[in-house]
Design goal:
By secondary structure, the chain is of the alpha/beta class. Helices cover about 45% and strands about 15% of the residues. It contains 8 helices and 11 strands. The strands form 3 sheets. It has a 7-stranded mixed sheet with strand order 3-11-10-9-6-4-5, with helices on both faces. The radius of gyration is 28 Å and the shape is globular.
Length: about 280
């Protein structure tokens, strides 16, 4: 009897092993088919991008950022018209020396987020100087202005609020708005009549907070937002104003996001500052 039980148990174990093996084969085959489909789709999309002439190849710069740079596998220096190094600070000796001193006193990285153990005195000093520059109450730094735009709307706005956005706002503003649960209204580009209509629609929808969001300068076209007119409409309707990077009406815009990665010479960095 014992031998019979052992034999049946062994047969059951073998059968289960075969079932597991078959399931593994099916799973592996399914994963392989999914991988093949993903690779095929990626290749098709890349081919379409190349055919449209929009495929971008990275040029590898082998010198410091400047008006003239060295590029890998290119014999002669190349004139650089596409950097944001407007003031020539990316490799300015004073900036390089300040960075070297900071490395000596504070190290390279923090291996932590800000609210755990990633805030140094240098962060707070920079935030204070940015606040003083804008005449604002406080500032918080981000790795980039794109991140600042992504983090703003979800933190401030809920389902009972409304965000009213220029139709040509930067992609990072649009992505940030998508992350929040506020009611969304889009007004025609720099059209103050349409903006007021959208503000009134938000009021009719019972919005608690009404935040008008606009680029200061629209980078694709160079249009400068009429921030003064926007602020006037906001005051009239009890709304708040957010601008990205540019503010021609000092002290009257509620929230400003901007970058530290362009004219100031850095490769990264952004912030949110406000009343």
């Amino acid at each position: 009897m014992a031998r019979l039980l052992l034999s049946k148990t062994a047969d059951a174990v073998k059968l289960q092993h075969l079932i597991n093996l078959q399931q593994l084969r099916c799973f592996t085959s399914s994963v392989a088919r999914a991988d093949d489909a993903l690779v095929l789709k990626a290749k098709q999309q890349l081919a379409e991008i190349q055919a449209a002439g929009t495929f971008k190849v990275e040029r590898q710069i082998i010198t410091p950022q400047a008006a003239s740079v060295g590029v890998l596998d290119v014999a002669q220096p190349v004139l650089n018209f596409c950097a944001n190094n407007y003031l020539g600070l990316s490799n300015h000796p004073l900036v390089v020396e300040a960075a070297r001193k900071a490395l000596d006193t504070h190290g390279y990285g923090l291996s932590s987020v800000r609210f755990i153990c990633g805030t140094q005195d240098l962060h707070k000093q920079l935030e204070a100087r940015i606040s003083a520059f804008h005449g604002s109450e406080d500032t918080i730094l981000y790795p980039s202005c794109f991140d600042a735009n992504a983090g703003l709307f979800e933190a401030l706005l809920g389902p009972e609020d409304a965000v009213i956005s220029d139709e040509l706002n930067h992609a990072s503003i649009i992505d940030g708005i998508r992350l929040c649960k506020a009611k969304r209204f889009r007004y025609k580009h720099m059209d103050m009549i349409d903006l007021e209509h959208k503000i009134m629609e938000a009021e009719d929808a019972g919005a608690r907070l009404k935040l008008i969001a606009t680029d200061g300068v629209f980078s694709m076209d160079g249009d400068v937002a009429p921030v003064g007119d926007i602020v006037a409409l906001a005051h009239h309707h009890g709304a708040q104003v957010f601008t990205d990077e540019h503010c021609s009406v000092l002290g009257q815009v509620d929230i400003i996001n901007s970058t530290l990665g362009k004219a100031l010479g850095g490769g990264t960095g952004g912030y949110t500052t406000g009343k």
